[in-house]
Fold:
Amino acid sequence: MTDLRRPEPLDPSRHDRGGFDSGELALDDWLRRYAGQNRRGDTAATWVIATPEDRVVAYASLAMTAIDRSAAPDLVAKRAPDPVPALLLGRLAVDRRSSGLGVGTALVAHVLATAVELNAKAACRAIVVDALHERARAWWERLGFHPFDPDEPTGTELYLLTSEIEATLEALGHEVPRGAARPTPRDDRPFARDPASPPPQRSVRLTVTVRPPALTAIARTLRRSDDSRLR
Structure:
């Protein structure tokens, strides 16, 4: 069993990014060279999953964005302001040595919980991603994301309405966050596999530092096998 921490903000002075290898040089290089710069410049926040020795095994970058209402899908544009407020999941990558542990799915669950909390405080219509390739697009669609243009088979931009997060989390076997979160004491409960799901080839146990209840609830179940290197 592999011990991994639950998602936490990247700390450039502590987290080891030097050996991160997702199989995509552009994603690896961004983590090593630009993640810290973007955080200091308040343009993107990077969340990581790391080992107890602080070696990063997965990361996701988040930033606020806006969608041109005239170019938005009908479900996004309906009764929305112009531009439409959204959360951008700019990058999602998993180290190849941790492939198959469900780490990528755990990070997506964290992002969805973040969107719920953000929507409760400041309004967030949707989560937006730009899939790296067709395989990644298919992965996002399995999570409930919709292509911006359903008639464009090679399109890479996808979205998930904040109102659809509950259904996606339930499909993943995660509990649904309710409202805005408040800080809670340390919670060291590990992730537990859903008894109804087939056993993974490898398993991972994630311990937590400090998490609000919404994110703790999201992180309780690591249900799906994640066989991709990146999203």
User: Anything to note?
Assistant: The helical segments are 25-33, 35-40, 74-77, 103-121, 134-142, 165-172, 213-219. The chain has one domain: 2-219.
